[in-house]
Design goal:
The chain is an all-alpha fold. Helix content is 60%, strand content 1%. The relative contact order is 0.17.
């Protein structure tokens, strides 16, 4: 029976070379540096939290949708490139983990409409159409948008360099880890601060709200194994870089460079989006959040029976679970 590479003593390589006792300390230092990078706790999300109390203008929502689409539309492409490189490097652990990541993003095993790019478009376009009066857009539409930021172009250029055939495999793995580590909290913040404040507008249109939640559920819903898909991706990416460092302790420096390249470009993009949101406060009508209407406020509404559940009950419950797990 083949030995599970994770089960190996962390201080011994497959060639039985002894790793320095400082290995864990050195790796943990890099992980701490990644976790504490400004991209992972950016003022953009605090601004969104404050703005969620009053609502966003049409221009604010349109600009954010445009740049988030442009940032995210290449996700499957970079995962494919990372998988191709893992195969070339004959890194079996990375092949399995990145392949699983790709299957999740592509919605393998489910409805064709539930691939993650389609879920992303549906979530933002449904909210945009129903509340802000904006027409739906596709990924190809954002390239010509007046809202597209220069920092977005730099972010995309960073990805092209990191995931190129000329790039170091260690840099690719570091970039992937930083990307996966950031994703969970980013999506929690976006849902809670941009989408959830408008939930009551969909009280009479639960299927649309359920479709909005589907994108976030696919990423941050707590699964049967007790963690979300994004948290699973983060843990898997960490194991990949950990095993790479066991095989070659010198890999850590390049892993760190790849992670920092991603985080620096992301922090610059968040700052540019924040500045754009502030600038767009003065353009367009503000769409305020709709407060929850209690039964006492509207006696004409009767309380539904406990045996009746709305189509979006599962999604709302899921997001409530997520809200209770903040602070990770």
């Amino acid at each position: 029976m083949l030995q599970n590479p994770i089960a190996r003593n962390i201080y011994t390589t497959s060639r039985h070379k002894v790793i320095t006792p400082h290995f864990d300390t050195e790796l943990n230092h890099v992980i701490k540096k990644i976790n504490e990078h400004p991209a992972n706790n950016h003022a953009l999300f605090q601004y969104m939290k404050e703005r969620s109390k009053t609502g966003f203008t049409i221009a604010q929502y349109d600009g954010f949708r445009t740049n988030f689409f442009a940032r995210t539309k290449n996700t499957i492409d970079v995962v494919v490139k990372a998988l191709h490189r893992a195969i070339k490097e004959e890194n079996n652990r990375a092949i399995v983990d990145i392949g699983t990541n790709l299957a999740d993003e592509a919605g393998v095993g489910g409805d064709a409409r539930d691939n993650h790019p389609q879920l992303l478009k549906d979530a933002f376009n449904i909210l945009g159409r129903n509340l802000f009066g904006l027409p739906p857009i596709n990924f190809r539409d954002v390239d010509q948008s007046m809202y597209l930021l220069e920092e977005l172009h730099k972010y995309v250029a960073m990805q092209k360099i990191i995931y190129s055939d000329q790039s170091s495999w260690n840099k690719i793995a570091g970039c992937m880890y930083a990307h996966e580590k950031l994703a969970y909290q980013m999506l929690v913040d976006i849902f809670q601060n941009v989408f959830e404040p408008y939930k009551e507008y969909f009280k009479d249109n639960p299927k649309s709200w359920e479709r909005i939640c589907a994108y976030f559920d696919a990423h941050i819903k707590v699964g049967e194994n007790g963690i979300s898909v994004e948290e699973k991706h983060g843990k898997s990416a960490l194991e990949v870089i950990r095993n790479m460092c066991i095989e070659d302790p010198k890999a850590l420096k390049q892993i760190e460079k790849g992670a920092m390249a991603f985080l620096n470009a992301t922090a610059d993009l968040w700052s540019a989006i924040l500045n754009q949101l502030i600038e767009n406060e003065k353009y367009g009508v503000i769409v305020p959040p709709k407060p929850v209407q209690s039964l006492e406020q509207d006696p004409s509404k009767t309380k539904p029976s406990s045996s009746t559940s709305s189509p979006n009950a599962h999604s709302v419950g899921t997001i409530n679970q997520i809200s209770n797990t903040l602070g990770k």
